[in-house]
């Protein structure tokens, strides 16, 4: 999978990706609108080119209160994100080229006011989704928001993900319609953040293409 080319469909007007991006951006804007007065922290896992966050931050009244860390493995994408942050003069946005599954990247950023886990849950195993949702209770502040995405192809895992968030003390704020062509959720953390388990890993990013091949191979076995 070319994760740089993956972003191209964002530029196709009214594609499912363009519509999903608008939904994520809208939820990010609402989360910032409702954030408490004072400095804010934002974390984005597998941030890609930062399209879900950077355009929102660029013209948001809270932009200068925000310190953000975007973690993205592909240097082409992290390069685009860094350049976008520089052009928007978002001086407190740091783009790290690295493995977002490693909790240590968030040492000095957790717990955050806003956590983006977009384009991740369709690319990792169910076991890792559940583990990552568990870690959101370490990464998110009380009252903070996590915005996440997941495709809705069968078997639709979105209801299970919502159950996992609720089991960790999150409350559902918004969920896209089942027939939207994508899945976007926003959960607010009502619990108390747990200490960050440094040295641990939340997920291995497998890729939806590989996961699909593995499923097909499993189903074709006698
Ligand atoms: C589906 S895209 C989502 C990008 C972005 N979050 C968005 O929604 O626009 C997944 C991204 O994860 C990146 N990626 C893959 N493995 C990663 C890893 N282990 N750590 C960080 N990023 C990773 C890919 O390069 C790609 O940019």
Describe the fold and architecture.
There is one protein chain. With 222 residues, this protein is an alpha/beta fold. It has one domain (5-220): Vaccinia Virus protein VP39 (Rossmann fold, 3-Layer(aba) Sandwich), CATH 3.40.50. The chain has six helices and seven strands. It has helices at residues 16-33, 54-58, 75-87, 126-139, 158-167, 208-220; strands at 40-45, 66-72, 93-97, 112-117, 140-149, 170-175, 184-189. It has a seven-stranded mixed β-sheet, with helices on both faces. Helix 2 links the parallel strand 1 (40-45) and strand 2. It is globular. The two termini are 29 Å apart. Residues 3, 6, 46-48, 51-52, 71-74, 77, 99-101, 118-119, 205 line the site of S-adenosylmethionine. S-adenosylmethionine is lined by residues 3, 6, 46-48, 51-52, 71-74, 77, 99-101, 118-119, 205.
Outline of this structure?
Helix content is 33%, strand content 21%. The chain has 6 helices and 7 strands; from the N terminus they run αβαβαββαβαββα. A 7-stranded mixed β-sheet has the order 3-2-1-4-5-7-6, sandwiched between helices.
Give short descriptive properties of this protein:
222 residues, alpha/beta, Rossmann fold, 21% strand, binds S-adenosylmethionine
Break the fold down into its secondary structure elements and pairings.
Elements: H1 16-33, E1 40-45, H2 54-58, E2 66-72, H3 75-87, E3 93-97, E4 112-117, H4 126-139, E5 140-149, H5 158-167, E6 170-175, E7 184-189, H6 208-220
Parallel strand pairs: 1-2, 1-4, 2-3, 4-5
Antiparallel strand pairs: 5-7, 6-7
This protein binds S-adenosylmethionine.
The site of S-adenosylmethionine (SAM) has 18 residues, from strand 2.
């Amino acid at each position: 999978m070319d994760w740089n080319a993956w972003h191209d469909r964002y530029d196709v007007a009214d594609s499912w990706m363009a519509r999903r991006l608008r939904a994520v951006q809208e939820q990010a804007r609402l989360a910032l609108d409702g954030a408490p007065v004072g400095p804010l922290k934002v974390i984005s896992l597998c941030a890609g080119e930062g399209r879900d966050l950077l355009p929102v931050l660029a013209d948001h009244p809270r932009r200068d209160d925000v310190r953000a860390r975007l973690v993205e493995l592909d240097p082409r994408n992290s390069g685009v994100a860094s350049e976008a942050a520089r052009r928007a003069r978002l001086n407190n946005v740091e783009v790290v080229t690295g493995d977002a599954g490693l909790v240590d990247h968030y040492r000095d950023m957790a717990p955050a006011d806003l956590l983006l886990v977009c384009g991740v849950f369709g690319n990792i195993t169910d076991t890792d989704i559940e583990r990552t949702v568990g870690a959101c209770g370490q990464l998110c502040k009380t009252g903070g928001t996590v915005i996440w995405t997941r495709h809705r192809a069968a078997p639709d895992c979105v209801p299970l993900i919502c159950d996992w968030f609720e089991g960790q003390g999150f409350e559902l704020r918004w969920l896209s319609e089942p027939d939207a062509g994508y899945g976007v959720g926003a959960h607010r953390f009502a619990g108390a953040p747990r200490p960050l388990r440094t040295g641990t890993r939340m997920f291995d990013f497998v890729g939806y293409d590989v996961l699909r091949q593995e499923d097909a191979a499993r189903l074709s076995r006698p």
